[in-house]
Amino acid sequence: MDNQENKVHANSECTTLLIPMTNMKLSAGHGWDWDSDESFTGELLPVPMKIARRFDGNKLIAATVKGDSMEPTLHDGEPVAYVREFENGDGIYALAILDEVYIKRLSIDRLKREITIISDNPKYPAKTYPMDQEGLQVLGKVVFWIHVE
To answer: What pLDDT score was predicted for residue 27?
Structure first.
């Protein structure tokens, strides 16, 4: 990983944090091959400082949504920012299942020790897994996205 390409930068007025975009596509559909070695596009996603300051800026990373399973919330081609290695209750997460990466809504039941993976698009059924499911890894929580019409 080239440290020059993955640095987080604040704009001169300190109103936004510029998050590096990875080449990773987060599948909102049937899965996207996961290359755990992050590479960067050179593009930066502006995240309002009001949001970014709540998290460790070095753990913020951006990726692109691929597919329609999270519509109407997220659309194909939209950029999202997520906090790596951060889990905080239910919400939209980047996750890996058996070497494929996804972006899905998670419902986490700590009493039953289950994670339900939910697509916002009703065409795709929800799936429930035990928290310790082999091959299931929560990569981080999505904290910001830009919705494009």
So the answer is: 80
